[in-house]
Write a structure and sequence with these properties.
With 211 residues, this protein is mostly beta strands. The chain folds into two domains: 99 residues, no CATH class; 86 residues, Macroglobulin (MG2) domain (Immunoglobulin-like, Sandwich). 0% of the residues lie in helices and 45% in strands. The protein contains no helices and 14 strands. The strands form four sheets. A four-stranded antiparallel beta sheet has the order 1-2-3-4, with no helix packed on it. The protein is elongated and about 65 Å long. The two termini are 34 Å apart.
């Protein structure tokens, strides 16, 4: 599964991942997509997944660019160290960079903005999903844009990927399909509405159940 979403053949290095108790996967890495040609100027980028790595959020640039080669080979370096731990709300990263013209150790608290994962295959092949209201506390409407000629299954899964609600198999070709769902029996937290064609996820949308 490719996590970085840049279109070029840029250098992505020192990738670090951690898993929160609620199952969210956090990933950070140094990325040279913004670097002037011929340089290794790098910025810290971040992405997360709440469906066991099946889909990932749009990459987020967390810092400005810095030159990781400062101090090398003219002087010794501590090393390019990265260590991250996650809880249900944040990721905590200790890492080394050269923002000050020397190598320092920095600490970053990363708070994912989980209002919906924009996966790269969202709306793929003419499929799409919309969920409203979101967050929801009682009833939610799920609207699916379908593609002619193929049955699709609509389900709600929890952060571990387990199906908590089957909303049925849809075979109406070329039209929008809408279903109203009562979510009062679901525990507060994050879920995914998923549209599947066979074994493939063709559209998905995050749902926050709040009380």
């Amino acid at each position: 599964m490719r996590i970085n979403d840049d279109e070029g053949m840029n250098l992505n290095w020192f990738g670090t991942m951690s898993v929160a108790p609620n199952g969210r996967i956090d990933a950070v890495w140094l990325d040279t997509r913004d670097a002037p040609p011929g340089t290794f100027m790098s910025a810290l980028y971040y992405s997360y997944s709440i469906d066991q790595g099946e889909t990932w959020s749009v990459n987020e640039k967390l810092t400005g660019s810095f030159d990781p080669h400062v101090g090398w080979p003219q002087q010794q370096k501590m090393g390019d160290y990265y260590d991250m731990e996650s809880d249900d709300n944040n990721a905590y990263l200790a890492w080394a960079n050269t923002f000050n013209g020397e190598q320092d150790v920095w600490f970053s608290q990363i708070t994912p903005d989980i209002t919906g994962i924009a996966g790269r295959d969202k709306g793929n092949d003419g499929y799409s999903l919309a969920v409203f209201p979101n967050p929801a506390n009682e009833n939610v409407t799920v609207r699916a844009k379908l593609r002619p000629g193929r049955d699709v299954q609509l389900v709600i899964v929890d952060i571990s990927g387990q199906t908590v609600r089957e909303l049925g198999t849809v075979s109406v070709p070329g039209v929008d399909y809408q279903v109203n769902v009562n979510v009062t029996d679901l525990k507060p937290g994050y879920y995914q509405c998923v549209l599947r064609a066979g074994n493939r996820t063709v559209a998905h949308e995050s749902l926050l159940v709040a009380r």
